[in-house]
Amino acid sequence: MSFDDLLQANRAYAEHFPHGGFDGKARRGVLMVTCMDSRIDPLDLIGLGHGDAKILRSPGGQVSESMLNGCILGVHLLGVERIMVVPHTKCAMASGTDANIRQVIAERSGLDTTWVSFGATPDQVNRLGEDVAKIRNHPLLKDRCEVGGFMYDVDSGLLEQLL
Ligand SMILES: [Zn+2]
Known about the structure:
The chain contains 5 helices and 5 strands; from the N terminus they run αβαβαβααββ. By secondary structure, the protein is an alpha/beta fold.
C-alpha cells in the first residue's frame, strides 16, 4: 500500500488549480461540525463550494475540545457566523456503545481497545443537544454566532433542523 495513486491524482488536480491566492475565511460564514462518514459531502449537501465554509469532522460528529477551539477560531478570525452540528442516520457511533465497538475490534484484530474512549452512544439526539449546548453556552461563542442542531439522512440526502 502506498500513496502513489493519490499523488498522481493530485498532479492532475494541481494542473488546473483555480483557487491560488484565496484567503482562508469562510466566505459564506458557515462552519459545519459533522461525522467522518464517507457518505457525507458537507459542502454539497448545503449547496456550498470551495472556500465557503469551515468543516470540522470527527467520529459521530461529536463536539470535542479541539472542535470547540475550531469554532472559536472560526468565529473570531475566519468569518464564521453560523455553526451547524450535523450527525447523521445509520452512524456507527450511534449504533451502540463503546463496549460494542471494542468488542467488534477485538473480534477482528484481537486488539484490546479498552484504553480508548470512542464516545459512541445510541442516544444520538441527546448527544446532539449536549453538543449544541456546549457551543451555545461557551463563554467565547455565546451570542457571537447562531448555532443549529440538525440530522442528515444518508439515504434521502435531506437535512432536518432539530434544534
Ligand atoms: Zn457517523
